[in-house]
Design a protein that fits this description.
277 residues; 26% helix; 4-stranded parallel β-sheet; alpha/beta; 7 helices; 11 strands; 4-stranded antiparallel β-sheet
Length: 277
Amino acid sequence: MRQYSPDLTPPWKKPKPVPQVPADPGLVVEEPGTGFCGAVIRCEAGTVTLEDRFGKHRVFPLEPSGFLLEGKVVTLVRPTGPPSTSPTAASVRPSRTASGSMAVPGARARVARAGRIYVEGRHDAELVEKVWGDDLRVEGVVVEYLGGIDDLPAIVTEFAPGPDARLGILVDHLVPGTKEFRIARSVTSEHALVVGHPYIDVWEAVKPASLGIPGWPRIPHGRDWKTGVCRELGWPENTGAVWQAILARVRTYKDLEPELLGRVEELIDFVTAPSDT
């Protein structure tokens, strides 16, 4: 007669059962093997399709303990009825961040990557944080600002970008023939990407309609641009206070010009791309 040994494993050491969660549309989960995080858009026999914040789709098998929901391991199962209304399921209409990306409920900031994004000036950094801050924290991307474009070669040399530490730089008024353009070309490499917008200052990247003005005035070359703008528009010449008033009117990506939006998204993609090595 076969003998069976009693299970003497203490209850607190026994593995806890993994909860099963219906893969309802809009549920935001992470596939830990790839780090792909997105919302469920389709669940078919044996597979689930996720959409990330950039609109990219990935199909994954419905394997036991195959996903993370708010940092906890779960098993996704095919819905059998109406969308779940349990507190573990996200809304059928996922919320969006200020950048228009898919929000990740309960997501914690990742440990900072070795890669960095540099922008030209404090105002640029504050604007990027206002619109892309939630996305950057989820991706573990740190944004720093340059004291000036002339500092860029030394910063790139000291940073020493590589496959696992990419460097993205956003420069104001990056047009051919300018000093900014020449410096940008001198530091660009496989692991250092410099992009720019055509505006003299990042203020111009805010849509005039969002500020209730007909347009940004043209300031003659040689004059301080910010001070000139304040004078032309009848604003106080305290440019720091004016900037804070402008920033307060920026609520989402819709308040910004596409020439800036595309460049920031390009940098985020660049520094978060998987290493080829």
